Amino acid sequence: MSNGKRALRLGIAGPVGTGKSSSIANICTALADEFRIGVITNDIYTDEDARFLKAAGVLPEERIRAVETGACPHTAIRDDVSMNLLAVEGLEEDFDPLDIVLVESGGDNLTATFSPALVDAQLFVLDVAGGGDVARKGGPGIGRADLLVINKIDLGEHVDVDVEQMLADAREAREGHPVLGVSRKMPETVEALADWVREVHARFVKGDHTPVDPGPMAPHFHADEDAEGGGYMHTHEEGEAAHSH
């Protein structure tokens, strides 16, 4: 980077449908006038998330790029980050200087964690429509990401979820680590999310931020029509992906 410092790299993980892309849109909309932001999205075979963000107009389209992993997208943020790292570095080089690069993981479970070799900090996104008990289920992403976002809190009354109880359960599961309830329809909650990003960026620029590894992802099942038994267990132990049928 021409200013001698690279961008803050912030990972966003969470299950399908929880609102990772909308969280990125919220962050970009709130902070685009303050920071130069770039986005990398991950999915197995599509660039749909990148197209959603481009259509939403949250950033100049050229600063939003898709990585099609061709396999478990979690592997590309944990075990072999080279594909994503090249994408991030390419974005930083092309638009030097960037202040923040957001890296979105494709998601299908509660276990995703980023390698600190790829991102400096990470947030994990759940939503109330997924059930009020989800935060209690724990896992590395929920328990040890730098921030847990409980998204779509405006839907609580419509899906019979006690949002305050869900937030309390999340705080207990995270042993005091930050939890934010967010709804794009509640500007004050989006501003609280933006404030968290501002604080992390300020620490990063000052050299006061140290990336913390949440730990390897828990073993999880992948459905696969071509595999005997309908799928396989996938573990991420000691930096290597292992499959067992």
Topology:
Elements: E1 8-13, H1 20-31, E2 37-43, H2 48-56, E3 64-68, H3 75-78, H4 82-94, E4 100-104, E5 121-127, H5 140-144, E6 147-151, H6 163-173, E7 179-182, H7 187-206, E8 220-223, E9 231-237, E10 240-244
Parallel strand pairs: 1-4, 1-5, 2-3, 2-4, 5-6, 6-7
Antiparallel strand pairs: 8-9, 9-10
Helix pairs in contact: 1-2, 1-7
Give an overview of the whole structure.
The longest helix is centred in the C-terminal third of the chain and has 20 residues, at 187-206. The termini are far apart. Helix 1 (20-31) packs parallel to helix 2 and helix 1 (20-31) packs across helix 7 (187-206). The strands form 2 sheets. Strands 3-2-4-1-5-6-7 form a 7-stranded parallel β-sheet, sandwiched between helices. Strands 8-9-10 form a 3-stranded antiparallel β-sheet, with no helix packed on it. It contains 7 helices and 10 strands. It has 245 residues and is α/β, with parallel strands linked by helices. The model is unreliable at 238-245 (pLDDT under 50). Helix content is 30%, strand content 22%.
List keywords for this structure.
245 residues; 10 strands; globular; 7 helices; three-stranded antiparallel sheet; single chain; alpha/beta
